[in-house]
Design goal:
The protein has six helices and no strands. The protein has a domain of about 100 residues. About 80% of the residues lie in helices and about 0% in strands. The chain is mainly α. The termini are far apart.
């Protein structure tokens, strides 16, 4: 069965099908970006892992040399480089959070498409509540739950984002371990 598009509507045209198409495009964009990002970050992570190993080897070799000003300077540079690498690894932790958030967005958009496309679910408040609870329960970061709750309490996007950032900052202070 073919349906009429918004560019050529007829009596069969449906705003629900148009909404589902737009949600599907959004899901495809998010998932495509995540896949491209994963490939790049995997390559970077492998490079950093290799650099950490090489820096350990250099440090070990330098430590075996007789003490001199040049050796001590080289060791200092080696340690400074290791700290920079560790800082980059911490940045990957933030990227992982971003990936997790985008995966949630993608899953939520898919679920929303399914509800909208299923008439007995579309008009059933219990189905919407169940879907909303499943969204909230998938969140692993408290900041996501705070933002979700704020929106469902009627707060604006700006207010919810402010609460999200506050909760995120608090969790960053508690969870991110600097080397």
């Amino acid at each position: 069965m073919t349906f009429s598009p918004s560019s050529q509507p007829d009596l069969d045209w449906s705003q629900i099908r148009e909404t589902i198409k737009l949600l599907t495009v959004s899901v495809a964009q998010v998932e495509g970006s995540m896949k491209a990002g994963d490939e790049s970050v995997s390559a970077l992570a492998d490079s950093f892992t290799g650099m950490v190993e090489e820096m350990k080897n250099i440090h070990q070799i330098l430590s075996g040399f007789q003490q001199s000003e040049s050796r001590d300077q080289a060791l200092a540079h080696c340690e400074a480089t290791q700290h920079k690498i560790y800082s980059a690894i911490v940045a990957f932790q933030f990227y992982d959070r971003l990936q997790q958030c985008l995966q949630h967005v993608s899953n939520n958009l898919k679920g929303l498409s399914i509800i909208i496309d299923t008439p007995h679910r579309l008009y059933n408040p219990a189905e919407w509540y169940k879907f909303q609870e499943s969204i909230r329960n998938q969140y692993t970061m408290e900041s996501e739950k705070v933002m979700f709750d704020a929106i469902h309490q009627g707060k604006s996007v700006d207010e919810a984002l402010a609460l999200f950032q506050q909760a995120n900052q608090q969790s960053d202070d508690d969870e991110i371990e600097l080397f």
